[in-house]
Specification:
By secondary structure, the chain is of the alpha/beta class. Helices cover 26% and strands 23% of the residues. The protein is built from 5 helices and 6 strands. The chain has helices spanning 40-46, 59-71, 97-106, 126-130, 135-139; strands at residues 26-32, 51-58, 78-85, 112-117, 120-122, 149-151. The longest helix is centred in the middle third of the chain and has 13 residues, at 59-71. The radius of gyration is 16 Å and the shape is globular.
Amino acid sequence: GSDWSSDVCSSDLDDWFIFNGNAIEVTIVSVTTPARLFFIPHLLQRWQGPFVFVIYCSDSELTSSVTTYLASNPPARVTALFYSHGRKNVYAKDFPVNLLRNVGIRAVRTSHFLVLDMDMWVNGDMYGEVHRIPRELMEDEQSLFLIQIGRASCR
């Protein structure tokens, strides 16, 4: 077994989650609060691949947050991690975004991941565009990809 602090090496291909038969796959990692759970169905329409959501809530919000999330009938490609805190917790008055992102990244089981703020949305065909990137570029550890995204609008 691996310990929580160990890193996944690029040679650990057998440990990667194979999604739709693809050894090269991209997971979106996003951190949110209960107030933005309603974004999830919209994000899932825009990205057909795996998602990891880390939902940060107080102990008193945990049950209703889990209930709300489950009511959205999330597909199996979604991993939801609920990180709750009590009033006396060191993070109770802050939003520990780096900690929460790291928790989400640790849950990724694909070869690649993309960390996005909850209100940053990929365009509708981004999943297809990512899968049109030549395999040799996706496998090259020196490659860097810039992705155009949009900000969610409530208008």
